[in-house]
Amino acid sequence: MEIVLMLLKVFAVGGVICAFAQLLINYTKLTAGKILVYFLLAGAVLQAVGLYQYVVDFAGAGATVPISGFGYLLSKGAMEGAKKGLFEALTGGITAAGMGITAAIVFGYLFALFSKSRSKKN
Amino acid sequence: MRTMYFKNNPSILATSSIGGPKETTGALGKYIEIKGEDDTFGETTYEKAEKQMLYTVIKNSIQNAHKEIEDIDAIIAGDLLDQIISATFSARSFDAGYLGVYNACATFTEALTIGAALVDGGYLKSVVCGTSSHFSSAERQYRYPLELGCTRPPQAQWTVTGAGACVLGNGDGVKINCATVGKVVDFGVVDVNNMGAAMAPAAADTLYTHFIETGRTPDYYDAIISGDLGVLGSHVLIDLMWQKGFDISKVYHDCGAIVYKIKEKEYQGGSGAGCSSMVFCSYFYKQLCEKSLKRVLLMSTGALLSSLSAQQGESIPGIAHAVCIES
Amino acid sequence: MENSQNFINENYLNYIKSVSPRTNESKTLFRAFLVGGLICCIGQGFRYLFEYALGLSGNELAAFVSAVMIFLGAFLTGLGVYDRIGKFAGGGSIVPITGFANSVVSPAIEFKTEGYIYGLAAKMFVIAGPIIVFGVASSVLVGLVYYGIYNIF
Q1: In the listed set B113, B138, B169, which residue is the last one of a domain according to the structure?
Q2: Cβ separation of C90 and B189 shorter than 8 Å?
Q3: Which domain covers residue B45, as residue numbers?
Q4: B118-124: Cβ within 8 A, 24+ apart
Q5: ipTM for the whole predicted complex goes beyond 0.90
């Protein structure tokens, strides 16, 4: 029961974040790359002022799977690092996000190596 | 005066057209001479596939005209890729002169105008005019990678995978009567997905100039054919011409709007340098040969942007050249 | 400059705006909501899996979940499926981290024809590069600000 309720929250929050992106696409003609950057920065800023953590506690993956969650992770890492010292303050962000970036590069290269771009019919 | 009259009746001796799977299953698919089974045409990259298409139609149009390559004085060709590589690399395989031309999607009528003038003046005996475009190579140069999951806005058009070429010379055939050279017109459209809106003012300017300078009216023609304005751009052109006092709606067609079966209303039809050449060299040329159309005005339209100019915030200039063809 | 006139024709642009087709608002929003929500639920499923099966928590858990989601995004892009999902879902498949993976893999596949170093590897970050640039830059800024705050108080 608890899991079902949690999944509902995940679905709702994740869905709303994505629907908001769609709203931006419809009204501002922003391209995919720009939307990703803006959402990442929004997540980073919201975490820096201490708000995004509440969304993550409430909705779990609904807040961490969207790219704003990647920004959250970067900010959170930097904030935790800042407690330890200057070096950790500078590297904390990329340490926390290192897994994601590594995965993107490694999987990206591998899958690109073994696949071909297909032309579209519609 | 931007209109030139050809006194010695240069004629279109033969044509050839090729299309990819989407085009050959479209509304005009049965008229296309060579039907590609897939859109790679046996090549490893889409750029090479485009070159292969253009090479094939040039070769076939010469054959269809019962000529040898030695009889051809020059090939006038162009396409959409950087440095018009498809045209250049396909011309590499022919032992003939080569003039590379670029006016984006208006390249076909530009090539026809130059070719007709050279033949009419007696400078060259026979020339081949051809253009090509390929959806996948254009998409990657102007837009996004094919596998990127982004949506196409409803005003977007679809680059035609196809090519067309025709042989011009003296002899029996469909005559090129006159041509009106277009002017670069820019009304400030910046939406790179709305090519029809960007090109329609240029088309209206060329068409209006053609009517004024020749004293003709839309009734003179059995068909006025624009290149790739799409559904939206066609409406805009009809409106703009109406404002200038000409009702073209009865005889007007757009190659882009008719090339596909537009199942989804949201898309505007085809575009690309290969759009008007493929459609003219297949469907309209056949109609002219069968005399079911006697006088047509072919007006390819082009959007003269590059991906750099679009990123620097420049608006999209348009161009259109009109060629009057009579059977 | 003589050549830099203003080409903007306001009347025409307004007219174009009025005749251009509009995106179907409610349909696209619903699809984005649906697909975006589903992708996040898949992520939550992996969260439970890693939490109970591997005993992960906190940043580690989040990092592993995002790695798996990136794997899935890259995998579906390689299969040529992700762009179809994207065509249906719009923002619903762009914003999740799978969309980030898609924006890495799709240019990499596309430019493979220009070689494995200057093509595939160099073009990998054509779209996703700015995300990493802004992400790292903003985290450094946040780190410095917080370091300043902790050391002043």
Answers
A1: B169
A2: no
A3: 3-169
A4: B118/B74, B119/B8, B119/B10, B119/B168, B119/B169, B119/B170, B120/B6, B120/B7, B120/B8, B120/B9, B120/B10, B120/B176, B122/B8, B124/B73, B124/B74, B124/B97
A5: yes
| Angstrom distance (rounded) from CA B279 to CA C66 | 49
pLDDT at C135 over 90: yes
Domain boundary among B121, B149, B169: B169
CATH of the domain at B306: 3.40.47.40
- Number of domains present in the structure of chain B: 2
pLDDT band at B58 (very low <50, low <70, confident <90, very high): very high
What are the strands, taking DSSP E only, across B134-184? Answer: 158-159, 162-169, 174-180
d(CA A113, CA A108): 8
Residue with tokens 């704003």: A68
Q: How far is C113 from chain B (nearest CA, A)?
A: 7
Instruction: Provide the 8-state DSSP code for B324.
Output: E
Consecutive H or E run containing C123: helix C122-123
Residues in chain A within 8 Å Cβ distance of C153: none
Cα(B264)–Cα(B160) distance, rounded to whole angstroms?
Answer: 17
Measure the CA–CA gap between A55 and A75, rounded to whole angstroms: 15
Residue to test with chain C: of B51, B82, B136, B147, most C Cβ within 10 A: B147
